[in-house]
Amino acid sequence: MRMKPFVVAAGLALATALAGCTSFGSYQIFSSDYGARTDAGYQLPSIPIYKVDKKYHRQIVPYETVEKPGTIIVDTGAKHLYFVLPEGQAVRYGIGVGREGFEWSGTARVAMKREWPVWTPPAPMIKRQPELVKWRGGQPGGLQNPLGARALYLFNKGGDTGYRLHGTPEWASIGKSMSSGCIRLMNQDIIDLYNRAEVGAKVIVK
């Protein structure tokens, strides 16, 4: 029995949605990929993604650049991070960036990658927020850790920049300027970026 074209199309659309993404022409948006999951023994909670502006949902978009695939480009003004793919495309993520006085720009490379990393607040931060002194020796990784589920450590010719691309349990901060300079992503997004990015990858922050 031959199926009518609109039935086939509807079935394909449903299958795509159930697979975790929805296609719109050359775009793919992964709005259904923010559910709860178990990760390295941690029960990562779901994100109420409907409360996050859709432009900050992970998606594959057209993106023209002279940079090679695998490069990470951070647009702090638009609050977007791009992971460059072949053929003029990129994975785009919503991000939170540094608040006024903590912005930065430049070029670095991913020197290390860590899952559920330890967070050690720098001395200037402890001076501003004395309650953080308890973590002077490092806060163990976990659901309440400010670095979230993953961290990519950025180094340049001078060594450790002190800046990270990292996850955050504070999903409502995405699209805002409220960090101490690091670039934060939703935990489900930093896991995706972590799996794509290689140690040594070029990172451009502008």
From TrEMBL:
Active-site residue list: H166 (proton donor/acceptor), C182 (nucleophile)
Signal peptide bounds: 1-19
CC per GO annotation: extracellular region
Statement: the UniProt record of this protein carries the keyword Hydrolase: yes
Span of domain L,D-TPase catalytic: 70-206
InterPro entries in UniProt: LD-transpeptidase (IPR050979), LD_TPept_cat_dom (IPR005490), Transpep_catalytic_dom (IPR038063)
GO function terms (MF aspect): glycosyltransferase activity; peptidoglycan L,D-transpeptidase activity
Pathway assigned in UniProt: Cell wall biogenesis; peptidoglycan biosynthesis
Gene3D superfamilies associated with the record: L,D-transpeptidase catalytic domain-like
Record keywords: Cell shape, Cell wall biogenesis/degradation, Glycosyltransferase, Hydrolase, Peptidoglycan synthesis, Signal, Transferase
Family statement: Belongs to the YkuD family.
UniProt superkingdom: Bacteria
UniProt KW Aminoacyl-tRNA synthetase keyword: no
SUPFAM superfamilies the UniProt entry points to: L,D-transpeptidase catalytic domain-like (SSF141523)
GO biological process per UniProt: cell wall organization; peptidoglycan-protein cross-linking; regulation of cell shape
The protein's name in its UniProt record: L,D-transpeptidase
